[in-house]
């Protein structure tokens, strides 16, 4: 069978029904909760997750949270409000910047960048970009570079050395972890579950922060490829402005696409490559479907496998020596 | 002959760094000089970055962005050849 974009097409009615049954069943029966909290970023994944929770549980049983901080794109609030009004759900807006400030997030971030660019000041913007090295057809290694932009718009880029890289990542990860803490506060006070919002690409490739955006009681769209999330969003009749918004990490002060931060391929193409790999299509078939020459495709496929392997620990629960025989009663109910 | 012994010396220092710093002194790990760190699961991309930091500090050299490739960094022999090239006068 030939691989084409048609392979990724859903029967949205059937899929919506399946996901809604899953949400209802897990929230009510497994988790014994009476609703769901969804952090709404104004992006397509959280919008679709919130809409599905509303379909499954009813608007009165879903709380939307908007959790901006200093580096957030102001548009995120606009889009978030658009969704919340569209769905008719209750919501809270919590500016997490003071919490991050108190924990040193911005100070550590400035320290990590300032060591590389002594002239870097708070009015500069910055982002981190994945920088693959080597020829497009050969084996490559990934590392991250930091890009800063002066108030007058001049950009500079440098490789992040090991210690600066770790410090910057650690400081940035605070954002996702504080957001999750706020989500669980509201979930606890309302007896709700926390719905995580990753799509399959993010989930599989480890594009999340452990105990940050990776933490949740359920992840209703973690099995959907990105194009399938869009298809579901269209089926759910989400506002067009949300469908048209370009995916962003919304973590750094400079605009940054998910492609340059992590994925290396346009998301539509990555969907096809990953679907092809998951379903056992050979390289030639994936190459024909994507238009990527086989040698270059091999590199991308290795990159996908490598990210999967590197991020495996993010999926692990805390490791213990408790024998399985003592924990079997905690299996899926 | 001098080149070969320098190469071995560099290789031992890199090996020492990997065994003692990255693997926290794991005595049961044998490192084949040509074996891929990445494929063997000894280093991931973060580990490679740590290795680069070690090379720059320990051997007082500067790794350019374009040097960060598996050919230069993904085995004991690759690293020692790379360091030797960087240290030898142009």
Question: What do these coordinates show?
Answer:
- The complex is a heterodimer of chains A (about 325) and B (about 90).
- Chain A is globular and about 55 Å long.
- With about 325 residues, chain A is of the alpha/beta class.
- Chain A starts with 11 loop residues before the first helix and ends in an 18-residue tail after the last helix.
- Helices cover about 50% and strands about 10% of the residues of chain A.
- Chain B has about 90 residues and is an all-alpha fold.
- Chain B contains 5 helices and no strands.
- Chain B is globular.
- The mean pLDDT of chain B is about 90.
- The interface of A and B includes residues 139 and 145 of A.
Overall strand count of chain A: 7
What is the overall shape of chain B? globular
Tell me the span between the first and last alpha carbons of chain B. 19 Å
Fraction in beta strands of chain A: 5-15%
Q: Main beta sheet of chain B: strand number and arrangement?
A: none
The portion of residues assigned to helices of chain B is 55-70%
Overview features:
heterodimer, A: 333 residues, alpha/beta, four-stranded parallel beta sheet, three-stranded antiparallel beta sheet, globular, B: 90 residues, mainly alpha, 61% helix, 0% strand
Itemize the secondary structure elements and their pairings:
The complex is a heterodimer of chains A (333) and B (90).
Chain A: H1 12-30, E1 36-39, H2 44-57, E2 62-66, H3 74-87, E3 90-93, H4 97-103, H5 105-114, E4 125-133, E5 141-149, E6 155-159, H6 162-190, E7 193-194, H7 200-204, H8 226-235, H9 240-244, H10 258-263, H11 267-278, H12 283-290, H13 294-310, H14 312-315
Helix pairs in contact in A: 1-2, 2-8, 5-6, 11-12
Chain B: H1 2-22, H2 37-40, H3 45-58, H4 70-73, H5 76-87
Helix pairs in contact in B: 1-3, 1-5
Summarize the structure.
Chain A is an alpha/beta fold and 333 residues long. Chain A contains 14 helices and 7 strands.
